[in-house]
Amino acid sequence: MDVGQMQRQWLDYTRSLFIEGFLDNQFLQLQQLQDENNPEFVVEVVSLFFDDSERLLKDLNFALDQQGVDFKKVDAHVHQLKGSSSSIGAQRVKNACIAFRNFCEEQNVEACLRCLQQVKQEYCLVKNKLETLFRLEQQIVAAGGSIPMMELGF
Amino acid sequence: MATTKFRHVFGGLWGFATSCKKNSSTPIGSRILQRDVEKEEFQYASILCLSKYYSVFVVRLAIMVMLAILIGLLTILTWHFTKIYTTKSLNSLAYDLRYELLQRPILRMWNILNSTSEITMAQVKLSQYVIRSHGNLTTQENQVEQMYEAMRAVTWALFASRKALNSITVKYNNGFVQAFHRDLKDNNTFYIYSDLANYSIGASASSYNSDINYSSLSSQESWNDHDNKSAVWYRQPLDPVTGEKIGKAMQIAPEDSIHIAGLSQVPDGVASWRVVVSKFTDSPLLSAALPVWDASNKSIVAVVGVTTALYSVGQLMKELVELHSGHMYLTSLEGYLLATSTDVPLLTNSTKPPKLKMAVDCENEVIRLGAEYLKKSSGNKFPPSHEVHVANVRLGHDRYYIDSFFLNLKRLPMVGVIIIPRKHILGQEDKRAFKTLVILISASMCIIVIGWVCILILTNGVSKEMKLRAELISQLEARRKAEASSNYKSQFLANMSHELRTPMAAIIGLLDILMSDDCLTNEQCATVTQIRKCSTALLRLLNNILDLSKVESGKLVLEDAEFDLGRELEGLVDMFSVQCMNHSVETVLDLSDDMPKLVRGDSARVVQIFANLINNSIKFTPSGHIILRGWFENPNPCSDNANHLMEEKNLQCAQKTRTRQHENHAKRTSKRDNKAILWFEVDDTGCGIDPSKWDSVFESFEQADPSTTRLHGGTGLGLCIVRSLVNKMGGEIKVVKKEGPGTLMRLYLRLDTAGDATEQHCLVDIANNGLVVLLALHGNMGRSITSKWLQKNGVFTMEASEWNGLTQILRELFHTRNSAGINNDFDLHYPIHESLKSKLLSIQEIKNPVFVIAVDIGLLDLSTDIWKEQLNFLHRYVGRAKFIWVLNHDTSNTIKMELRRKGYMMTVNKPLYKAKIVHILEEVVKERNHEMQKKNMDELHESDYTHCDAASSDDSDISESGPCNPVKSEKVEQFHRLSLYRINNCLIGLTDEHSEANNTPKKEELCQNNQNSPKSLSLEQDYFPREAHQGEDSESRGKEEHRIIGGSARPVNGKKSLEGLRILLAEDTPVIQRVATIMLEKMGASVVAVGDGQAAVDALNGLLGVEDFRRDSNLNERNTRSSSSQTEILSFPSYDLVLMDCQMPKMDGYEATKAIRKSEVGSGVHIPIVALTAHAMSCDEAKCLEVGMDAYLTKPIDFKLMESTILSLTRRTIS
Fold first, then answer.
1. What is the largest CA-CA distance in chain B?
2. Which of A70, B9, B42, B725 has the greatest count of CB atoms below 10 A from its CB?
3. Which of A65-69, B385-389, B980-984 has the weakest average pLDDT?
4. How do residues B668-699 score in pLDDT, each as one tens digit?
5. Contacts of B531 (CB under 8 A, 6+ apart)
6. Do A33 and B1195 touch (CB under 8 A)?
7. Which of B557, B1069, B1082 sits opposite A52 (nearest CB)?
8. Beta strand pairing status for B272-277 and B284-293?
9. Both ends of chain A: CA-CA distance in Å?
10. CA–CA separation, B986 and B916 (whole Å)
11. Minimum mean pLDDT among A54-63, B464-473, B714-723, B780-789: which range?
């Protein structure tokens, strides 16, 4: 495939991610932080996010499965998840987390479980999207091209 | 009339009602005045009340008026119907009556008239016959006489046949008169005749004949003239029945006594009627006259006149109306009275001849008035066939009925009038009607009054209800307010406890720091530990205040975690003993041996329960003791221990068993889910609780004696919390009857035992070591309980409660043993008890006894310097017995120093509970074993190193710290280690410097010695993997740090905004940590990232470096701990700024900041701390700034904002 075509594809894909609300400005900031010193910075951080989130989701699953749900714990987990997701700009995960925390305060187990499912779903979605994005990037780099800079007027 | 009456009545009612209203409104008014004084908040309610009152009164009034109207209408209707209908029917009846009454005299009149006319006719006919039969003989003298005779006889016959006749007269045309007259008054009958001699028949006949064609007037005139001139009349009385002449004929003047009908009265030759008045009678007479024609019907031979007295009509009328006491009269058309029912004269006597009176001139007043009325009403012209029926005429003083009837007789029309007093007919009825009215009105008044009373009563109920409702409303309002205020209160409490918690957490954190400091002496350490415990308790209390609302609303969720119940309770008793000692109260913990060591539950709540209970007890116990007993109720009570315990407890309180039996069902239920029932008692010797209050003390804000609030303070919430917590844990609490003074609270809790590890203590092993314990303690209760327990566990004990007792026992123990009878004189002073003797004897039987003497420092005389001598005295026994010094928390340092100087290593703080004793005894046994070992070692010189027990590897701490003793795997060895562990960890204040100091080097030595032994290798391996594991945990972090350092070391091109700054980043989320690190590095700063607050604090204190770089070195080259790296770390410059995440594990940002600020106090350093938080709320910002942070950044981190914030802060600090 032509490099230019791939770059265009990449741009389109990224733009769609922004338009669909999966990502926000924070992700742009991350991208801007990436330089020759940290060439894999975004991927690194995002994979950190994936690991962290998977652990947190597992913990949440476990915490909510228990007889007496410890909402403080759940809340702390969700808080962490919210923090990390907002740091990489996974906007929709963050929003789901915000809703989740509200239910945590209400100590509503059912709603929490519902929210957990939602968060999981959002997480899977954003994970798939980002993985696709990174694959594209890898392809571009492999083809000898460079990642175009996003100039999005958000 | 009725309406006016009604109006009057209604007016009266209205007046009454208004007066009622006035009466009832006055108290309301006064109430208003009262309420004006009252508080404003009640005004609304009172206004509501007033309006309610008014509405009630209006309604009441309306109902009353309606009732009155209703009853009034009913009354009037009733009265009307009874009265009017009766009146009507009576009137018609009365009319009939009157008509009937009037009809009869008229009929009589008619009859009279009829009979008069009949008689007249008969007389005329008979006269005609007689005259005609004698007509031919008129000339003959005798025949004329015969004719007269015959006429007389005929006339008599007729006259006699009619008794009512007044007279019959026959006047012949020759002037001869024949007449029969009946005087009705004296019932005399007369025959009146004229003198025959003066009359010639012939002459008369001739004249008669000649005058046949005369006009009646002329003949009449001639007759009259004739009659008047020369008539000689005789009157002869007759027998009224037979007609026989009974008297001499007397000459009377013509027309003197009788009216003789003459020709003048028959002017046209037809019968005539008229009413005449005779001077002989006082009543008017009805006279009829008929002419007697001759045979040829051409001339009148004679005139027959018949008069009938109207007297009988009057009589009849009198009879008729007499019954009705009325009046009746007949008048002619012109108004002359013909007959009345009264006896008044009908003729005027004043004139001659008497004339008929007019009715209006009648002497009878009633008649006169009636006549006048009639005349007035119908005028003078009395119309024919006009009948008057008036029902209600006022004549004089009375009311009368007046009815008139017109009787139209030919030539004699008459009017009959009847006047009947109304009283007679309707009198009763009128009276009755009046009475009925009165009765009705009074009855209705009664009903109205009763109705009003009823209404008043009923509406009174309503108004009362309204009052109550209004009160209820105000109560509800007040309750709402109270609830609101209580809400405020709890909110306030929550806020306050939050505010209190924060510094408490700081205190605890600082204490932790202090405790981690190595340079503390053991006493200091113990004190700090105590402080930390108390602080923790305080924090717990604060938390509990927060949770109180939760408890009460039932939202409390109990934790379910494993905890060491015994240790918690010991800590609790430790805590309270400090408090108790000031009260000279002994705190004793008496837990049975079968208590499960580990239970699952909410340790904080359990401790809270007992803390509250003991606190309560302390409050009310000025002296004596407080015992916290605990025993385990095994669901399957087959274990010997439990039975043993039960037997023992039976002695103490028999009812316990009973309760236990009562709780059998609970036991059964608890079997299912592995729950143990733990019984506890808190027994004090305080003032006690009145039995009537036993239940109510558990209510909130309830105290047994309200005055205690003044004395002891407190809110009365403690027991309430306790009860709710106990209930929450599936237990019950109650106050139980107790012998002696004080309170005994008994409760049981249902707690999960951790598995079935009802850890059997190794106490059994203390026994059979030949231990003899001398307890020289102050507190009776604690001493006896300890001694009992020790004896039960096979340890020989003796007790002494004071110095003298102690010395005596010591003397007995050691002096009698060594050299009997040295101090016999002393024995004389203090004779030994029999029991003590027997004990001593039994001690002597023990082989190789170890004496342990626990001496309460309080037994020494501390007020003076005597205690030093006493100490010296005791020091003499030091070789023969182990001394354990039981110290108070306030024991002065000089004593402690003195003790230490003398080489006493075993000191223990009060209270002396089981765990401590166990540790001490274990220590003693261990030491002894050591000594024995040493001996053995010396003897053997040869040691076979065997593996440690499998048991020892159970506890990693032991394996870590415990030495691999070159001893056979004996129990003694186990003790040794256990005790070591305990001493290190239990914080009982047991100072064992000596042994520790001895042991540590020994341990190292041993380890080094055993380098090549397989066991030690395994230990090493055991040790390193743990480190490695730790490292793995934070491997990524470590890597990062490594790289960071590398990054910072790398030369950077160009001017970066944050060039040269060292920033400490405390953030637990790896993503954010990474992002922030890169961001900061981009700006040129060098970053050190840590994972939690504690690490941050440590890093700032220079501790982090050690740890981190040790880890680094572990990662890089595990084996070599390069001192160079350590020094490098130690020489690390301080940080320029801290980025602190707020929510972190272990220690959050707030706590960390506080800790940092705390440590800065006094040093003059102020490191800028920037908060990183995801809480995008202003209150969080406030909180951040409050704990001492300088700035505030929200997540996700904004590159520029962070830069500017950091720059502003660092510049400030630089400048």
1. 228
2. B725
3. B980-984
4. 444 445 678 888 988 888 887 888 878 777 77
5. B511
6. no
7. B1069
8. antiparallel
9. 30
10. 9
11. B714-723
Measured between CA atoms, the residue of chain B closest to residue A81 is B1069
**Dist. CA B54–CA B891, nearest whole Å:** 79
pLDDT tens, residue by residue, B1176-1210? 555 667 777 788 888 877 766 777 778 888 888 77
Token couple for A80: 């962490």
Rounded CA separation B714/B875 (Å)? 47
- For residue B549, pLDDT over 50 is answered with yes
Q: Do A68 and B1082 touch (CB under 8 A)?
A: no
| pLDDT number for residue B1193 | 79
Cα pseudo-dihedral B120, B122, B124, B129, rounded to 10: -170
Kindly report, residue by residue over B215-235, the tens digit of the pLDDT: 333 344 444 434 444 567 777
Q: Do A83 and B1082 touch (CB under 8 A)?
A: no
Q: How confident is residue B380, by pLDDT bands cut at 50, 70 and 90? A: low
Q: Which of A104, A82, A108, A109 is nearest to A95 (CA)?
A: A82
Query: A residues 59-118 near B, CB within 8 Å?
Result: 68, 76, 79-80, 82-84, 86-89
Phi and psi, residue B62, nearest 5°: -60, -45
> Which of B10, B1, B122, B144 has its CA nearest to residue B70?
B10
Q: Is the pLDDT of residue A20 over 80?
A: yes
Determine which helix (DSSP H) or strand (DSSP E) holds B459, and give its type and residue range: helix B422-516
B999/B538 Cα distance (integer angstroms): 37
The minimal CB distance from B1074 to the residues A29, A32, A45 is found for A45
DSSP per position, B849-860: -EEEEEEEGGGS
Peptide bond into B1196 cis (omega under 30): yes
Question: Phi and psi for B1170 in degrees, rounded to 5?
Answer: -110, 125
Please tell me which residue of chain B has the smallest CA distance to A89.
Answer: B1196
Q: What is the C-alpha to C-alpha distance for residues B333 and B410, in angstroms, rounded to an integer?
A: 12
A87 to B1174: CB separation less than 8 angstroms, yes or no: no
Alpha-carbon distance of B226 to B256, in angstroms, equals 16
- The overall average pLDDT reported for chain B is 68
SS3 (DSSP) at B490 = helix
Q: Smallest Cβ distance to B1070: which of A33, A48, A86?
A: A48
Contact (Cβ atoms closer than 8 angstroms) between residue B592 and residue B645: yes
Of how many residues is chain B composed? 1215
Please classify residue B270 by burial: count the beta carbons closer than 10 Å to its beta carbon, then call 0-12 exposed, 13-18 middle and 19+ buried: exposed
Report the gap between the CA of B763 and the closest CA in chain A (Å): 38
Tell me if residue B661 falls in helix, strand or coil: helix
pLDDT per residue as tens digits for the range B938-957: 655 444 443 433 333 333 33
Inter-chain CB proximity B1071 and A88 less than 8 Å: yes
Q: Do A87 and B1070 touch (CB under 8 A)?
A: no
Nearest to B297 by CA among B131, B510, B119, B86: B131
CB contact A51 to B (< 8 Å): yes
Interface contact flag, B1196 A86, Cβ < 8 Å: yes
DSSP category for residue A90: B
Q: Tell me if chain A has a CB within 8 Å of the CB of B1047.
A: yes
Report residue B750 CA to chain centroid gap: 39
A-interface mutation test, from B600, B1075, B1202, most A Cβ less than 10 A away: B1075
CB atoms A87 and B1075 under 8 Å: yes
With 60 as the cut, is the pLDDT of residue B646 above it? no
The set of residues, in sequence order, having a beta carbon less than 8 Å from that of B312 and lying 6+ positions away, is B108, B112, B164
Q: What is the DSSP letter of B813?
A: I
CA-based max dimension of chain A: 57
Structure tokens at A97: 């987390």
- Whether B572 shows a pLDDT value over 70: the answer reads yes
Predicted local confidence at residue A86, as pLDDT: 85
